[in-house]
């Protein structure tokens, strides 16, 4: 067993699910954040348990061949947004592939020999993955530093202390100008930042969205209140920024980790921005989910479309459809598409997006996928003399917690030829794949798509085919 504060020399031999390096000293396992496979490092033991401990990286004695000389962002180690910026991009992709494969094997119980045949290499970004990206799950948080100055930044890894940074390397360039504009305004008019411990103060977060094909900009301030004093002045400044299209407020007065409030108030411009993925035009409002990485999203949806293998005659369900992104991608090649999504504003966007693209064969329903689809199935049976509802292809793209078993059961009951599963959490994907494989479906293709370079997160698209009995 190790002692706290002990300094040790370790060779890193493995990587944990959170991207931390793993090495052994005399059989004792140490987890070391920011150390990567192949490094020999000097580390200080911070926490020592009986069989394993956590250590802090002090010095890289011999760098791994996969280590970059200098991470692009000087905040990389402190900030919780990125976890593996020290790794060269091909090594990041290899890590993500093995993470997906590991989960499918262990949790999904998919045989290794099958995975050898059906797993495709991760689809990465071109270059080093440093192209600008929109941040959605890590919207800048507004806070106050020790000297009482308002600051913008991101939460540190494990804690909610704010790492000041208006120039996140993963965000688009204009974000910095917008954030500085907001901070200057707050400083000048003494507008307080929100303090989550005291549950006091006003400005909590800033949601920034950028249309990569249209250059339209959206700013939504999330506030602990109904209005911002001198709001007219703020709008006057923000609207000078070229491309500014939508300035809104969202009220969130709850003591919660949830970022957005339930409502949106328009301050200036319109409530949405427009962007394209492929040929399809999307209007996106602040409360709707939108994929964070537009370059990769096009590749992701392209694969989903490939896997669906549509010929024009199919009835397709797109569950967890958001603003109808995948639904509309599929609609052009299918007979009829049905989308289901829990956020009403997203469904409004979806319907509208169908309209502006002249797509008439897509229908959208608000509700939980695990309620809407089973109810549809039951209702159909009742009204069709016991005949059961059928789908040719069912696409699911659930949040991290994956699909409820009741939903998977209805999917199985509807006997689609194909299930296309888009997942942002390969552990829950593996759990759901296990259910589907046990109920008449076989896994056919699995492709990780890197939507989130420099983080440990990985998106996967896979397809399952019905096994004919
Ligand atoms: N396919 C879309 C959205 C995927 S994100 C896209 O690629 O843009 C997952 C979506 O599921 C979010 O829009 C979220 O609001 C929605 N959601 C979460 N829980 C849900 C549930 N139980 N039923 C239906 N939709 C849900």
Largest sheet: 7 strands, mixed
Q: Note poorly predicted spans.
A: none
End-to-end gap? 56 Å
Q: Provide the spatial order of strands within the biggest beta sheet.
A: 17-16-15-18-19-21-20
Oligomer: single chain
Mean of pLDDT? 94
Your description of this structure?
Helices cover 26% and strands 28% of the residues. It contains ten helices and 21 strands. Strands 17-16-15-18-19-21-20 form a seven-stranded mixed β-sheet, sandwiched between helices. The chain has a five-stranded mixed barrel with strand order 1-2-3-5-4. α8 (369-383) runs parallel beside α9 (405-414). The termini are far apart. The mean pLDDT is 94. The site of S-adenosyl-L-homocysteine (SAH) has 18 residues, from α6, β16 and α8.
Features:
469 residues, alpha/beta, single chain
How would you concisely characterize the structure shown here?
With 469 residues, the protein is an alpha/beta fold.
Strand and helix map with partners:
Layout: E1 7-15, E2 21-25, E3 28-32, E4 40-48, E5 52-62, H1 89-106, H2 112-118, E6 141-144, E7 150-155, E8 162-164, H3 174-188, E9 203-210, E10 217-223, H4 231-238, E11 244-251, E12 265-269, E13 273-277, E14 280-284, H5 294-308, E15 315-319, H6 325-331, E16 336-341, H7 344-356, E17 362-366, H8 369-383, E18 393-396, H9 405-414, E19 418-423, H10 426-438, E20 441-449, E21 459-466
Parallel strand pairs: 3-5, 10-11, 15-16, 15-18, 16-17, 18-19
Antiparallel strand pairs: 1-2, 1-4, 2-3, 4-5, 6-7, 7-8, 9-10, 11-12, 13-14, 19-21, 20-21
Helix pairs in contact: 1-10, 3-4, 5-6, 8-9
This protein binds S-adenosyl-L-homocysteine.
């Amino acid at each position: 067993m190790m002692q706290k504060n002990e300094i040790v020399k370790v060779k890193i031999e493995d990587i944990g699910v959170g991207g931390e390096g793993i090495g052994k000293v005399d059989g004792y396992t140490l987890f070391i954040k920011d150390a990567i496979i192949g490094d020999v490092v000097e580390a200080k033991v911070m926490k020592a348990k009986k069989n394993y401990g956590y250590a802090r990286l002090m010095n890289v004695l011999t760098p791994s061949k996969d280590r970059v000389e200098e991470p692009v962002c000087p905040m990389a180690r402190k900030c919780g947004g990125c976890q593996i910026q020290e790794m060269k991009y091909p090594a990041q992709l290899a890590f993500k592939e093995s993470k997906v494969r590991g989960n499918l094997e262990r949790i999904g119980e998919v045989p290794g020999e099958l995975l050898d045949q059906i797993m495709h290499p991760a689809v990465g970004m071109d270059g080093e993955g440093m192209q600008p990206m929109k941040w959605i799950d890590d919207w800048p948080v507004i806070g106050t530093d020790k000297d009482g100055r308002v600051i913008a930044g991101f939460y540190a890894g494990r804690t909610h202390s704010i790492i000041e940074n208006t120039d996140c390397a993963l965000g688009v360039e204009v974000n910095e100008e917008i954030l500085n504009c907001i901070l200057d305004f707050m400083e000048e008019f003494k507008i307080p930042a929100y303090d989550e411990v005291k549950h006091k103060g006003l400005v909590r977060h800033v949601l920034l969205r950028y249309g990569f094909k249209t250059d339209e900009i959206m700013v939504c301030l999330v506030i602990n209140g109904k209005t911002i004093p001198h709001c007219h002045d703020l709008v006057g400044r923000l609207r000078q920024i070229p491309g500014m299209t939508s300035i809104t407020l969202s009220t969130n007065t709850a003591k919660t980790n949830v970022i957005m409030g339930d409502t949106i108030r328009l301050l200036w411009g319109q409530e949405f921005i427009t962007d394209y993925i492929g040929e399809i035009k999307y209007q996106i409002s602040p409360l709707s989910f939108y994929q964070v990485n537009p370059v990769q999203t096009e590749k992701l949806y392209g694969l989903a479309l490939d896997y669906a293998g549509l010929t024009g005659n199919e009835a397709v369900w797109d569950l967890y459809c958001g603003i109808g992104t995948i639904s509309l991608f599929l609609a052009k090649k299918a007979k009829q598409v049905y989308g289901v999504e829990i956020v009403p504003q997203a469904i409004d966007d979806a319907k509208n997006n169908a309209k502006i693209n002249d797509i008439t064969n897509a229908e959208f329903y608000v509700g939980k996928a695990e309620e809407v689809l089973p109810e549809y199935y039951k209702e159909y049976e009742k009204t069709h003399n016991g005949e059961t509802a059928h789908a040719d292809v069912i696409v699911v793209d659930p949040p991290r917690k994956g699909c409820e078993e009741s939903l998977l059961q209805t999917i199985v009951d509807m006997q689609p030829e194909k299930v296309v599963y888009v997942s942002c959490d390969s552990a829950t994907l593996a759990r759901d794949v296990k259910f589907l494989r046990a109920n008449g479906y076989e896994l056919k293709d699995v492709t990780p798509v890197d939507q989130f370079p420099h983080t440990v997160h990985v998106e996967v698209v896979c397809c399952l085919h019905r096994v004919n009995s």
